[in-house]
Amino acid sequence: MTADLATYNFAYLDEQTKRMIRRAILKAIAIPGYQVPFASREMPMPYGWGTGGVQVTASIIGPEDVLKVIDQGADDTTNAVSIRAFFQKVADVAVTTHTKDATIIQTRHRIPEQKLTEGQILVYQVPIPEPLRFLEPRETETRKMHALEEYGLMHVKLYEDIAINGRISKTYAYPVKVDGRYVMDPSPTPKFDNPKMHMSDALQLFGAGREKRIYAVPPHTQVVSLDFEDYPFEIQKFEQDCALCGAHGVYLDEVVLDDKGGRMFVCSDTDHCEDRREHGHVGAMLATDREAAE
Amino acid sequence: MAANTEAFSGGFSNPVFESQSVFRMVMDGMARPGTIRTVEQDAGQPDPLGSAAGAIALTLCDHDTPVWLSAGFSQSAVAEWIGFHSGAPITREKAEARFAFKEASSALSSFGLFSAGTQEYPDRSTTLVIEVEALGEGQELTLAGPGILHSTTAKVAGLPETFLRLWADNRTLFPRGIDVILTAGRHFLCLPRTTRING
Ligand SMILES: [Zn+2]
Q1: What is the set of domains in chain B, with CATH numbers?
Q2: Chain B: which residues have CB within 8 Å of chain A?
Q3: Which residues of A204-219 are buried (b: 16+ CB within 10 A; e: fewer)?
Q4: Chain B residues with CB inside 8 Å of A31's CB?
């Protein structure tokens, strides 16, 4: 352990705060999908930076852990780099960009493409934890709706969306029902990733700092995206393969190449893309580049 | 006073890291009900409190969590020990208790007086830590629910005979309900309120 670590509490938070958050996490696991209120602390970063996720990670992390942090699917954005550096500094933990090597993965949006395994923990940074908030601004009312399992209005709203748009237009923060009871917001995860939450081998923890809520999905737990018999839930489908690694059926980001309308689609999960390329997979763009070089 | 000396003794030698490690075992245990965990950390708890129960108390209790103790614990140095090391107030009111500790082979007549939380705030419920004779041997229980792929079995010796009936009642309260940790010396397993048990 480095000497300057002595000036911090391990993982930044004081022990009293960690205990309070730890108790909230245990209750969250015992009541899957239910939002446990907690006394969120000021963190040395702005709210938009995932202070809820950071507090959850800080309360669970130990010296043995290996931490991965992603923003969208990438490990190298400012947000991900800062959070990773924060934990290296205050908890002296090992970090990685490889999904398979991580014990804790903190994410702002995506769920990694590689299937998570038993023993891994996925920590989500959540801006708006309340799936009913767009229907009802009052916390006392949404809490009552969850208590009485009154989700009819939610279905009506989704159906109105179909009437207007011909489909459910939500592509992010698409509501799910956890273990047949609580409606939960996986926000701001793209709905493409919703099926990965269902019966996952990993423990999923959600922290909302500004809204002061923690919730959880235990491993092997049903997570079902809300839908209708005549309008079943569907994930986004990408026509293209990844231009760099040729991956099909993964979540792709559009990258603008020049000002003449040139663009390509690449894996949003950068670790997945790099790993595939290391294993010899080549996408159309890289193949063209190679031919040009030869 | 002999009891006081016992109360001041023990505690984690490295509270920050030991409580983190014990918490992770409890968290993993709650996330995977029925799996037996072993606490290597030494809580230095006085008899008749077991070491897993002692470590759990040190890890999770503080002045925000009133603690209820069964008669054998409250009449021993355990009450003062928990109070001294964690700062938790000891309460005689089960409904106030965020944590409750029950010694082995003491009667368990009801969960009803412990807090099951409210329909709006089901998290405001008691976590009941029950010492049993042994885990990994004895009566075989079949468990299912969140955290369990299909189903799993857990063996428990010395489970209070009323337990399965009380647990079935507890299940019907969902999302309200208490959560249970069974402890046996250094070992423990978790039973969150979602777990269905067949004896
Ligand atoms: Zn790719």
Answers
A1: 2-193 (3.40.50.11310)
A2: 15-17, 19-21, 23-24, 26-28, 30-32, 59-60, 62, 64-65, 98, 118-123, 125, 127, 146-149, 174-175, 179, 192-194
A3: bbbbbbebbbbbbbbb
A4: 122-123, 175, 193-194
Instruction: Tell me the shortest Cα–Cα distance from A31 to chain B, in angstroms.
Output: 7
The residue with tokens 């209790």 is B61
- Cα gap B142→A239, rounded to integer Å: 46
Give ipTM to 2 decimals. Answer: 0.97
Tens-binned pLDDT, residue by residue, of chain A (294 aa) = 444 545 679 999 999 999 999 999 999 999 999 999 999 888 888 777 899 999 999 999 999 999 999 998 999 999 999 999 999 999 999 999 999 999 999 999 999 999 999 999 999 999 999 999 989 999 999 999 999 999 999 999 889 988 898 888 888 899 999 999 999 999 789 999 999 999 999 999 999 999 999 999 999 999 999 999 989 999 989 999 999 999 999 999 999 988 888 899 999 999 999 999 999 999 998 877 777 766
Instruction: Tell me how far the alpha carbon of residue A171 lies from the centroid of ligand 1, in angstroms.
Output: 21
User: Which residues, 6+ apart, have CB-to-CB distance to A13 below 8 Å?
Assistant: A21, A41, A55, A58, A59
Q: Does residue A20 come out as left (phi exceeding 0), alpha (psi in the -120 to 50 range) or beta?
A: alpha
Dihedral sign for Cα A142, B171, B123, A125, please.
negative
Report chain A's terminal Cα–Cα distance, integer Å: 50
Angle at which helix B15-31 crosses helix A15-30, to 10 degrees, equals: 10
